[in-house]
């Protein structure tokens, strides 16, 4: 493994962890507070704006670094090996996490633009909960991929 491969793998894990962690944080800390009316629209809008930045950066960096890793280790056996299937599963989960993150954040943004908090938080909740499950599944998949086969 070259130094470039180590850096790419490190960036991949770092951005995946921050993205996944931010999804879970929104689901278990921010949205319940917003649904209870403990947050005003301005702080919720700012948290959502920061979440979008994290989610988008996470999506782009993990796509690029994951593509690099796949091209350097799995392309020949993508459809014919367990490790290849894990990589394909990770791609599908990545797509789901990106979509759920964007939809959930859009639901919050739509409401906070109208100075609402409780309804947008309730509308975004199912998407963030689903995204949290997908984020955990991604880490389980990554753990299986890292295991020696």
UniProtKB/TrEMBL annotation:
Transmembrane segments: 6-33, 86-106, 127-147
Keywords carried by this UniProt record: Membrane, Transmembrane, Transmembrane helix
Superkingdom as given in the UniProt entry: Archaea
GO cellular component terms listed in the entry, alphabetical order: membrane
Record-annotated Copper resistance protein D domain positions: 46-145
Name of the featured protein: Copper resistance D protein
Native source organism of the sequence: Halorhabdus tiamatea SARL4B
